[in-house]
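S.,

Sequence below, as promised.
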Amino acid sequence: MSDTQPTESKTHQPPAALVAAARVSGMAAYRALCAEAESDFEGYWARLAREFLSWKTPFTKVLDSRDAPFFKWFEDGTLNASYNCLDRNVERGLGDKTAIIFEADDGAVTQVSYRQLLDQVCRFANALKARGVKKGDRVVIYMSMSVEGVAAMQACARIGAPHSVVFGGFSAHSLRDRIEDTGAVMVITADEQLRGGKSLPLKSIVDEALALGGCDSVVNVIVYKRTGGSIPWHAARDHWLHDEVAGQSTTCEPEWVGAEHPLFLLYTSGSTGKPKGVQHSSGGYLLHAALTTAWTFDLKDDDVFWCTADIGWVTGHSYITYGPLALGGTEVVFEGIPTYPDAARFWKTIEKHRVSIFYTAPTAIRSLIKAAEGNAAVHPNLSDLSSLRILGSVGEPINPAAWEWYYQHIGGSRCPIVDTFWQTETGGHVITPLPGATALVPGSCTLPFPGIDAAVVDELVPATTDDIAMSVESDTPRERPKRRFDRGLLIASLVIASGLVLVIFGLTTALTGDDGIDRAEAIESVQPVENAVQVLQQERVVVDLQPGYEARLVIDGIELPSFRGHIVNDVNPSEAARVPNPERLVQAYHQSASTLNLLRAFTKGGFADLSRVHAWTQEFVASSPAGKRYESVA
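The prediction came back faster than expected:
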């Protein structure tokens, strides 16, 4: 990777054949959509809502902005997300089409058709109702990647019970906090999960979370038997999933809900380090998930789509559970990790299932680049990747060198890369290339998605700086409050203002490959909890450190293999997380006056409190000249 250092001005044009057949074909078509949205904003979104979604009660009101920024979209319309993902595909003759190709950790493959998935979801939904779950009740789902996990989410949507999925790598304390905050009446989990050939606990962590207190709202725990391992059991509260669904009808009338009815809650970290619940509605969210799946990935009837994220992240919500299924697509759901049984697992899986659209994280790409460069036996050139036609990147900025490697070695220099910029709060892509329209710039998310009104402004950053502040000016169906994002239309910096750490795109690029570092992540905060457990979490970055246990790092649902096998005896985040030398990090923040101005602007704007830094960087901040400059910014 180090041999390839493309310039930021280098561009790649999409293949002519792909442009000709694309849903959005050419820049003229892209500009026409943007012009339509600009000239008749409400009419644009109303047209798409009628085209992409099925409504039980058609809406007559498009946008209610009287209580801005708490906008209401399609509020007098009724629909059901599960119906839109399952029933209507069966009704239009796709019942026998494969909905999910599930590949287990050990490589076993199960294919589930739309009719089979609908039957499974209906039985699941009826079982939830039999246990008293009703419209408006919250259900926490704590599972690994599985058909059952997707079915659990769809079953909740079917009966109007908002779900809150908690990533299966989170600790008992993190799980307890989310259960308590949602007031969940039920937890759905599994006995254990399988990752990298190992059985890892789930049910026992649920038991620990409930024992911590504050979870009195939970009445029932439903347990999917994944491994058959020995687990504690509370007879009055715990119920096996297979027993619950046995004998249930395969028919369950959808609960028709208003478009503003909550579909799910998902927790993301805020500036204080305490997780914040983001609520997405049924109508606006589902529209944006379906629309971005259609246009960003150009999904066609014969595509096999693979998003490698976990359902515990918003990426897994939008581009596994809802978006592809709402379009009647076929998708891969993958239980394993990219390095088990070896680091060619992704490439072999693409070849096995003839995947045509592949969506993964830059951290995984960089990790697999390093593996391929160190071991020819796992290089992607040994796998047949000819089925691929579109690649995607999600979760963090991708540096140009990794972009070029991905483009050349995985995409054969013929597959457009859609570098998608968005957040949990937006629910779907905000800035992204469209593969049949946009010229591609390595490391760039390029242009706003049609209907997103993005403007370059100088309100936060002095106009003389090299960095660009970007404002999302208009509300859209999937996003309520106006927000500011610091990523320019092309190559400007993305700053993650976490309240403790700011990670800049240029910094990520500079550090990757330096001194053996093949990743640079944003780590939100260090949360000391009982039993010397340390949880470092940012929206897509999780490190769970427990004395005597393996450290695990997961980025956007992908576990980094370099952390496995590291036993933490004394909780020491700087060693266990192998964060780059903090002094070098601090120095990198101050390489240019423009970066300093940008940091000052975010501090003044209340986006970040730069006086607070991780305990394990404070000694460097106090002792080094770069650190003193860092303190002076705050």
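Confidence is low (pLDDT under 50) at residues 1-8, 457-475, 478-634.

Coffee later?
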